[in-house]
């Protein structure tokens, strides 16, 4: 345990964050480390300034453990810096870990502001370059498990040593305390028991919560299709998908026409259909063929998963017939 604590402290010294006008600085720890190097730049497209007290949080977790044990954590005050934010991190050898995942987040005293997808880091990679690492607003598909408490949806998941409970317009920073996760001031407590939970907030009545299926996570963001049956999709006329967990439906643009279909979801199992669409003619530029392939692939979907880099894979058997990325 002392070795691991010293190892984490040594690695934390190697992390420097700066704005795009400054090259990432290198700490003394980097010269003695011999593991993978993560070099990246964090951004988001919205023109929303970060608060002056925002911090950049970077973490590395063990992907092989059930709870994805925290291996490395670094928090750095941004001191007014805005995106894009460059960073560099040198890790020790990961041979004993095998597969790790890296995530970055932006936090402020008010809670978790944005978070990136989890990115796999292999011990066999010398340098991992993340030149356009997008930080997403929350709630969104990039973070945590999904819960319904009363009439509200929440995401619950870790970043660093904290757990965050996030809903639209609300973010609670919680720490493990006995049989619950509690806020520092004791006004919020979240108690999990399998697929059910209890949310206590201030003087209000406790709320009973239930874990939502994966389909609910997909409904936080529309998705842009980037691959159909192993073939990349042209950006012009790329299909998109929006999931509605309440109506158990999918809808979007197929390229030239609008479409809508029913969804039958149970856990990770996902079947789509029947699907109907409008009947507008497509230009003679390949979009018509791409649209037909997309709609046919939707009808073959019988399962799905979200990859470690946040992409949605719609599967037919073991084959990914549609690959999409979140638009947010």
UniProtKB/TrEMBL annotation:
Q: Which Gene3D superfamilies match?
A: 2.40.128.270
Query: What is the superkingdom listed in this entry's lineage?
Result: Bacteria
| InterPro entries cross-referenced by the UniProt entry | DUF306_Meta_HslJ, HslJ-like_sf, Hsp_HslJ-like, Pilotin
* DUF306 domain sequence ranges: 218-320
What protein name is recorded for this chain? DUF306 domain-containing protein
Taxonomic placement: Bacteria, Pseudomonadati, Pseudomonadota, Gammaproteobacteria, Chromatiales
């Amino acid at each position: 345990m002392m070795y691991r604590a010293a190892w984490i402290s040594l690695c934390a010294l190697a992390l420097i964050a700066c704005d795009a006008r400054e090259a990432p600085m290198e700490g003394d720890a980097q010269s003695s480390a011999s593991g993978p190097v993560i070099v990246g730049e964090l951004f988001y497209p919205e023109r929303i300034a970060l608060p002056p007290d925002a911090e950049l949080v970077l973490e590395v977790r063990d992907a092989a453990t059930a709870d994805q044990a925290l291996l490395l954590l670094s928090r750095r005050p941004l001191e007014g810096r805005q995106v894009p934010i460059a960073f560099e991190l040198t890790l020790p050898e990961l041979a004993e870990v095998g597969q790790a995942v890296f995530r970055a987040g932006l936090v402020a005293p008010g809670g978790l502001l944005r978070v990136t997808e989890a990115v796999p880091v292999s011990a066999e990679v010398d340098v991992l370059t993340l030149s356009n690492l997008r930080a997403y607003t929350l709630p969104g598909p990039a973070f945590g498990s999904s819960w319904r408490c009363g009439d509200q949806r929440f995401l619950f998941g870790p970043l660093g040593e904290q757990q965050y409970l996030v809903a639209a317009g609300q973010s609670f920073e919680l720490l493990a305390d006995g049989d619950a996760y509690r806020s520092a001031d004791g006004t919020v407590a979240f108690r999990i028991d399998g697929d059910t939970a209890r949310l206590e907030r201030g003087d209000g009545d406790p709320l009973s919560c239930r874990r939502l299926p994966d389909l609910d996570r997909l409904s936080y963001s529309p998705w842009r299709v980037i691959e159909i049956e192993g073939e990349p999709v042209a950006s012009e006329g790329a299909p998109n998908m929006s999931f509605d967990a309440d109506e158990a439906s999918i809808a979007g643009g197929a390229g030239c026409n609008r479409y809508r279909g029913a969804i039958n979801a149970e856990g990770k199992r996902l079947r789509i259909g029947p699907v109907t669409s409008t009947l507008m003619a497509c230009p003679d530029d390949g979009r018509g063929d791409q649209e037909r392939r997309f709609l046919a692939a939707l009808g073959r979907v019988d399962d799905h998963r979200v990859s470690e880099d946040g992409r949605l894979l719609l599967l037919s058997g073991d084959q990914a017939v549609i690959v999409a990325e979140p638009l947010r």
